Amino acid sequence: MSQAFIEGREAEADLHAHVCAYNMAFEELGLRFRWDARTLASLACIEDEAMRIVTYIETHHPHLLKAYSPEFLSHAILTRKNAQRPEPLPILDTAIHMETNRPSVVQVRARDTQVQTDYSLPMLAGA
Asked: Measured between alpha carbons, how far is 11 from 27 in angstroms, rounded to an integer?
């Protein structure tokens, strides 16, 4: 096995572990969204973890910002995520983004034609 293959598998496993940690945090807080590897990879070009969360919420769930500040949401999510996976996900290089051949969060939002009809706010359990 080549070193590049091994490093690629390790990066993939690390990405998966972070996705699981974020999803557990969302679940613990009663948030009704889940990330997959594509979502996290599209956000990984943002250096700051809190800004990754804020960017996602601003793009996909802006109604939450009517009740909660971006700082509150990102802190609540990161606190729980870090209990599972304390180290930040490193910024992914362009090769990983090109390899996945998937659109970024912003591109997905721009072409998203579905209108969200459930504007109820989660309880943010434990926050």
From this structure: 24
